[in-house]
# Entry
Amino acid sequence: MATSKLRPLDQRAKQLAQAYAAHRPLIQRGLTVGFVVYVLTAAYRSLASRPVTRRDKEKDVADRKDGKPARVAVDAIFYQRLGIILRIVIPSMHSKEALLLFMHSSLLIFRTAISLYVAALDGKIVASLVRGQSLQFLLNIIRWLLVAIPATWTNSWLSYVQNKLALAYRTRLTKEVLGMYLGDEADGPEGKVYYKLSNLDDRIKNADQMTTHDIQRFSTHLAVIYANLAKPTLDVILYNYQLSQNVGAEGLVLLTVLVQTSAALLRALTPSFGTYTAQSAALAGSLRHTHSRLSEFTEEIAFFGGEETEKRLIEREYAELVQHEHKVMNKRWWYGCAEEGIVKWLWGSFGLVVCAIPVFFKLPGISNFDLGSRTESFVTNRRLLLSSSDAIGRVMYLYKDLAELAGYTSRISLLLDTMSDMRKGKFEKSLVSGATDGENGEILRGRGRVLLSDDIQFESVPIVTPNGDILLRSLTFHVKPGEHLLIVGPNGSGKSSLFRILGGLWPVYGGIVRKPLASDFMLIPQRPYLSLGTLRDQVIYPHSQQDMEARGVTDADLLAVLERVQMGSIVDREGGWDVAHEWRDALSGGDKQKIAWARLFYHRPKYAILDEATSLVPPDMEGTMMEQATALGITLLTVSHRPSLWKYHSTILQLDGQGGYIFTQLDAEKRLAIQEEKQDLETKLLEVPKMKLRLAELQLIADANRRSM
# Structure
């Protein structure tokens, strides 16, 4: 009875096999088309953004409160940031970058076609060896050598175009960043972003690293990521299509199921490399910033003997970086073990099984199946499988590369977003305690108006520091051209803050400020800034030599300017106008201040802000420079405590450091008389204790004499 039941089943199975064989070409095409669709869908899903969940947002908020870096992942936020940056680096389809991308794509396709030809040629070479066909073997070797010419040419061009792409991306992004970072005079209050990043906002601590190293790393990763995305996807489709023609689409489907199952396991084990990359860049930037501070303040540190402290600070930053890198290396170690075990060895065993199908099973449509044919089929399929496995492996690596790109993208996006906020007047700064409470909060939430005027006039303007400390709640004064203003007061009373508002560096939180353009002001600090460049550049900064010549100024005119500050001999002493030095080291403090005054006389602005600008020059030279500035029509706004300067000013703004001030006309002679009388009285008061002591001694002597009598 059992046999009678099996026979119909055997017959049924035979009928199904015959029907399958009859329709196998159609089934093969269907499976192949399905495979192509699956690969494209899988590639899209692997790149598609993971939605940002409410839990992710809550974790980000908690991390920021704890001082931890924000989470970085391949999600919707990453693609939104990347899209904004891509519109910068590839501005249009007709741009140079778009042309380079087209060339890159064409070369990738051509290289894949060469790889398919080489795989088939490998099989033919081995088959000719097995069959003992010497002539055919030599012809195949000649074909091998001939195909090497376009293959090597293509590989070299791919590397060249990829590097050109990275450089083009970096150039575009650097120009965009520098345009926002430095801006120009036409930007007005929206400019000076480089200053605001350092002084008015806390989000970016090391802008120098972000504008150089991070942009370079991002551009390189972006150029590489395209090749790692387009080439492997194309390879997987073409190699597996050819493989399906050789071993059957059934084997290809089985291989795909096994590979994708193990790939899902590997993806689940992948750490968050994007977050690690962003943290590494931030820690490296912090270490670099610490080193740069040591270089900047070498003299002060040397005088204080602060070597051990600075060493401790650098070692602390380095230890944090090393600790993080050890953590990342440990993660990469076990991930590398899992990755190689799955991609190389497990997938390799799957491939060997698929390659063996034509050897152990007779496939429909293949009639010639001798030893040479089997060998040729195995070698060709094995070469295709290795190439396909490598392509799938690169697709797997792609997620890790994307995660690292996400890290650099977050850094560049933070820089661009912060600079954009700076230009809109939006700042994020840690505020002093109580800054947002009550009346203080109302002042910080307010905004004043800035109007153009030839005069300088403040009407009920609060003076507020970037951290929310209110120095003056309402300042009112008026300075007309030609009325030199002397500003005095203790440290922290708001003297420098007033100048920063005049220069358009700090926001106005209330009232009305009437002033000329920021370009009509020039600042001479106690330690003047000397740029990199020639001696001529120091005098005309920030003009270039072309700007100077366009104004009709010659080197002889510059020499006359230097003569005004008794610095004419410096031209011959240093070797001429075109000699270049590190001028901040080559000149003394007094010479630096004289160069700054020469710069003032060259530019002749409407107003000059002098912040202890004559503290290192002789008194007679100080008076000469003040008089020459007045003769040139420059109105002086001076911060100084030297009484010798009072006679050159007509008004005085005295700040008491407690939120109060006095603005009045300055009678220099009367004030000097009062000052001299005050000093005389103070000197006499210092003698009072000595006089009392002497009086007591005389009293004792007198008493002793009376008793002796």
In short: Residues 371-424 form the longest helix (54 residues). The two ends are 161 Å apart (CA to CA). Residues 1-6 have pLDDT under 50 and may be disordered.
